[in-house]
Write a structure and sequence with these properties.
globular, about 40% helix, six-stranded parallel β-sheet, alpha/beta, about 500 residues
């Protein structure tokens, strides 16, 4: 593909404006600063870019020194998907825990505090909340990222989350339109499909998005999923019928539409990132998220040039690209005029309060809290791409704090139960699982542990679908650090 010379012509600037790229490192590279000067209007941050709140604030200040109205986006859902606290685990429970409590004012408070912390670090666009109705328990990528399987519950908490987040001056980006909950495939790896009729889609999948729009969500993220009832040929991100006719037309949404990561295999494997980006903008998307995987200047150049070439060839109307760029700039103007961090009162304990309220405990009436350090056997599945493998989870760290000397090990596979028994020795066992219902080997391991050691305590940190068992069973509805702390407090009786 032809590389266009650096310039400030409107077409080239618009092409850069609709990109939301990522980068590596904890300081902005020279190429990114140069692109901001050329028209790039957004930057996406991931866990690899964050070491501390102070470092993040310095990074966003560096970006704004180059362009004061830059949109700084992040994938900070709280709960299992955290970037602010990627190395420690989140101070906030995720959506599933908030849905389990079902107190919309608490959800609003959690989102407001999360927004306050983001704004204090210079972040003004959050790719959250997930409005997906987790109607398929086998879903490998949504799960605890959803408020739940009940449509009305998901809708009211999505609205509360949007309201809370935006009260801090951080734009919400409600995802994954038109709904990723009824899928059994992770779109990071392949193209999922939802095979239900339009009536079910309207009543189930779309209801939380209607609530988000009514609450004033400033952005919506499209999903890389095939919904044959709406468009039998194109993934939602690339579908004019879904993005423009349904979201813009039928639902009356007028804010920014952002794609999910364009390099995800559900799009990239079939269309490639250049063609995928062109088709997405043509379908009605305003911003192309890229950088979770591809995060360099060459990627930005490729996508910029693909958009410019598509306009020059007549494949992409120039007016459509200009409209997309205009919506990006409009959101930047909103963030500049929205509230400041100091306008939202700090509430450092709201996440822990929520995590404690989210616990569902079976067997508490006969349980005696531990006074001696146990052995924590973490039955560990492969983490999905959105969560990532770098964020710690479980209860071991928090149990160590209240019961010094606690030991732990991670186990997986058919021999996990036998291996955990051998490692635990005579110590009391705390078995920690994540979505037991999706992992037969995990069920086998628990069978082995409970047969040999009936006094084993079980902590389920995923979606609690399996029957509670163990001398004490704690469902935390998520694996955030505060969920682990809340569970540890029950186990140790503190």
């Amino acid at each position: 593909m032809t590389t266009f010379a650096r310039g400030t012509d409107t077409l080239t600037r618009d092409a850069l404006t609709v990109l939301q790229p990522g980068f590596t490192g904890t300081a902005a590279p020279d190429w990114l600063l140069r692109r901001l000067g050329e028209g790039l209007a957004s930057v996406g941050l991931f866990g690899r870019n964050i070491a501390s709140p102070g470092q993040l604030a310095a990074l966003t200040a560096q970006l704004r020194a180059e362009r004061d109205d830059v949109l700084v986006a992040i994938d900070e859902e709280g709960g299992d998907v955290t970037r602010l606290e990627v190395r420690t685990g989140s101070s906030f429970p995720g959506n599933h825990a908030l849905g389990a409590v079902d107190d919309t004012e608490l959800t609003r408070q959690v989102a407001a505090e999360l927004g306050r912390r983001l704004a204090a670090c210079g972040v003004n666009l959050n790719w959250a909340p997930s409005a997906d109705v987790n109607s398929n328990p086998a879903n490998p990528v949504i799960g605890v990222r959803s408020f739940g399987a009940d449509t009305a519950l998901a809708a009211r908490h999505t609205a509360a989350y949007v309201t809370g987040l935006q009260s801090a001056g951080v734009a919400a980006c409600t995802k994954h339109f038109p709904g990723h909950g009824d899928t059994a495939v992770d779109s990071h790896h392949a193209l999922p499909r939802i095979d239900v009729g339009p009536e079910v889609l309207a009543e189930r999948e779309l209801t939380p998005f209607r609530a988000a729009i009514a609450a004033g969500t400033r952005a919506v993220m499209s999903a890389h999923i095939l919904v044959p009832a709406l468009d039998p040929e194109h993934p939602a991100t690339l579908s004019h019928r879904i993005v423009t006719e349904l979201l813009r037309g039928d639902l009356g949404y007028d804010g920014l539409i952002v794609t999910d990561g364009i390099e995800m295999q559900a799009v990239a494997a079939t269309y490639g990132i250049e063609r995928g980006s062109v088709l997405a903008v043509a379908a009605g998307a305003d911003a192309i998220c890229v950088g979770g995987g591809l995060c360099d200047d060459e990627t930005v150049r490729r996508l910029r040039d693909a958009l410019v070439s598509a306009v020059r060839s007549g494949e992409l109307p120039e007016e459509r690209l200009a409209d997309a760029a205009h919506r990006v700039r409009e959101l930047a103007r909103w963030t500049a005029s929205a509230g400041r961090p100091g306008e939202v009162a700090a509430d450092d304990e709201v996440g822990l309060r929520a995590a404690r309220r989210a616990l569902r405990i079976t067997g508490a009436e006969t349980f005696t809290p531990l006074t001696e350090a146990p052995y924590v056997a973490a039955l560990t599945p492969v983490a999905n791409f959105a969560v990532g493998a770098e964020t710690p989870w479980g209860v071991a760290a928090e149990l160590t704090r209240v019961l010094p000397g606690t030991e732990t090990g991670s186990f997986a596979g058919e021999e996990a139960g036998t291996q955990a028994l051998a490692a635990a020795g005579a110590r009391r066992i705390v078995a920690v699982v994540r979505d037991e219902h999706r992992h037969p080997w995990m069920t086998t391991a628990l069978d082995t542990l409970l047969s040999a050691r009936p006094d084993t305590i079980v902590v389920e940190m995923g979606v609690p679908q399996a029957t509670p068992r163990g001398t004490l069973h704690i469902a935390t509805h998520g694996a955030a650090r505060v969920c682990g702390r809340a569970a540890a407090e029950v186990i140790a009786g503190v």
